[in-house]
Amino acid sequence: MSKLKSIYFLFKNTSVNILFWVGAFCFLAGCDESSEDQYSLHKTNKKHWSYQGETSPEYWEEIESNSECGGTRQSPINIIDFNAVPTEKSEQLEFHYSSEIQLKKAINNGHTVQFEFMSGDYIIYNGTSYNLVQVHFHEHAEHLMSGVVYPVEIHLVHVSSMNTITVLSILGKEGEESEVIELFESFLPLKMGESKTIDVKCDINQLLPLDRTYYSYSGSLTTPPCTEGVNWVVFKEPIILSLEEAQKLKSNMPLDNYRFEQPLNGRVVYLNSSNTF
Ligand SMILES: [Zn+2]
């Protein structure tokens, strides 16, 4: 083997090892959807997924060969209210959001702007506790509501001690200014790949719609590796943010950072109107 080849193989194997261990860390730490580490590892890879051109969502299954992007229980979906099954379970979802959780980091990972939290806030969903890890944004929305597309979708990613994921999804439409969105945006602009360490208190309760009616179904991450088995909780009522706030978010993210609608494939979407607080 030539010296050049040896160096190549050493580099290749080292890269694979680094990818494995960072991947394993990310899985255990729950830094899932669109994590900064995923981005920084892949940014030199020309075939890394994106939202435009030859690496856009329609090619993810092909270019992310070890992903579940071609699976049958994928997200997002079109949630048709008429077909949603009212669930008999009440108090399925409990919120344990403190009025002063600490925001620790803001990141532009090249796919979205993401805000990470110190541990403390959590939800209990179907008897399991899930910690709030991060909040990020999509423009326009990924989930359709009976065919209607909202301008913004906010994902609150929660991870359990067993590394299972529940994402709370809040749709946003334009109107009055939102104080909590204003707080997030006070750390913008962020250039692609840039992050800021922050230390400010935040009340996630203010981000939730007043009416806590929600749809739930079993789906996937909406970005590669499109891992299935994700619990989705999508609030029926959108929140209101101003046009300027929506535009500021948009200018800090790649254009159209949403995945298109995925087939339901016989999955049931439940409607929970119990308004638990
Ligand atoms: Zn998302």
Primary descriptors:
single chain, 277 residues, alpha+beta, Carbonic Anhydrase II, two-stranded parallel sheet, 5 helices, 19% helix, binds zinc ion
Could you please describe the fold and organization of this structure?
It is a single chain. The chain has 277 residues and is of the alpha+beta class. The protein has a single domain (31-272), classed as Alpha carbonic anhydrase (Carbonic Anhydrase II, Roll), CATH 3.10.200.10. The protein contains five helices and 15 strands. The strands form two sheets. Strands 2, 3, 4, 5, 6, 7, 9, 10, 11, 12, 13, 14 and 15 form a 13-stranded mixed β-sheet that branches. A hairpin with a 4-residue loop joins strand 9 and strand 10 (165-174). The site of zinc ion has 5 residues, from strand 7. The site of zinc ion (ZN) has 5 residues, from strand 7.
